[in-house]
Design goal:
Helices cover 39% and strands 18% of the residues. It has 450 residues and is of the alpha/beta class. The protein has 2 domains: 10-287, 3-Layer(aba) Sandwich (UDP-N-acetylmuramoyl-L-alanine:D-glutamate ligase), CATH 3.40.1190.10; 295-449, Mur ligase, C-terminal domain (Protein-Tyrosine Phosphatase, Chain A), CATH 3.90.190. The strands form 2 sheets. An 11-stranded mixed sheet has the order 4-3-2-5-1-6-7-8-9-10-11, with helices on both faces. Strands 12-13-17-14-15-16 form a 6-stranded mixed sheet, sandwiched between helices. A hairpin with a 4-residue loop joins strand 12 and strand 13. It is globular.
Amino acid sequence: MADPGHPRDLQQWLAWQERLSVREIDLGLERVQRVGARLGVLDPAVPVITVAGTNGKGSIVAYLEAMLSAGGYRCGTYTSPHLFVYNERVRVGGRPCSDTELVAAFEAVEQARDGVPLTYFEFGTLAALRAFQEAGVDVLLLEVGLGGRLDAVNAVDPDVAVIASIGLDHADWLGDTLSAVAREKAGIMRRDRPAVFAAPDMPPALWEAADGLGARVWAPGHGFSRSGGDDGWTVSMDDGFKLAGLPTPGIAGPHQRDNAAAAITALGRIRHRLPLPGAAMTRGLADARLPGRCQTIAGPVEWLVDIAHNADAVAGLAGHLRTLPPAAGRTWVLLGAMARKEREDLLAPLAGAVDGYFLVTLPQPGAWTGPDLAEVAARLDPHTPVHFVGPAASVFDAMDGWLRPGDRVVAFGSFHTVEWLLSAARRETGDHATRGQWLPRIDDAVARSA
């Protein structure tokens, strides 16, 4: 007879994993290495590209997946967190793994675990590696969850390491200086293997760490360069590899050419193992999508939705907003955020650039309350009114009285904010004709961005 306490379906497995370790985050590789060795997933037979960075790593993974897929390769792609369902984290050939596939991987990890107290992320990482092994993918694309050096993903040696950017975030775990953060991110690099830096202004500590590790670095102006404008741009590498006539990247935002150029350079470093025609790279670059990253959803009211949740990301969002044509009507902010984020970092970049605020308390434990956010908004932007302060579930009623056709809403603050907004809007547009006139049309929008 089956153990009645043993998880059976995906949701039961996820709930069980959340209770498995006493710590939500417990950085370190020893547990993953022990279980991963038993499972036989830490030495893949296919190329591995690992991507870390404070901001931009999800975009780089999306470009890599799109370009490789356009060239006919079957990617095993691991990202986190997810927006709607856990399955989004583990993709094979661009398709989220099914519940059945994930449950089989979880069962294999549990069999190999032998009492080792894995965290939720560690368990999921090992399950993803198992799912990719079972699927027989051609390449692994692994996005670091937190930091790099001690992240579970780093139990696998990458053939190419990509570092998107260095900024201040998660200071409790990574440190409160750029040098400290850089040293943590640098941990994904390996001796005599390529490391690609996306941003042109990486802190000296990252270069020093790369030198100490013996990695071979390619960075803007150091091994590769990009040039050109909107009518076609070029990535050139010192070894003669060149890709010209590139289209506008499929993901919007101010740093997307840096991210795309880094993805192209990473593929250039292992083109002897994963040869790709230029046409596939060009097509993949244009086709790449990533929901919730500077995502514009058109309608009578335009929505600009972004997961931005730290100072650099919100500054990037503000920069992107400045490149857009002005809204015909007013521009509003809808903000919800977790309390581990600095309120000033979230509100300062848009202060003075919007016409009103809707500040919500997200339903997740540990979120800033609407009044907490309003206190800082009043101090940083005293001449801009706050029209709503309260629980997220009530904000749509308040917005009914203010939004008009031609307005724009900038919604951001965290993955939780975007997930809550898009999920709630999907429900509301089906039930309320009035709200349906200005809420984002979620089914179509997500389909275009998936």
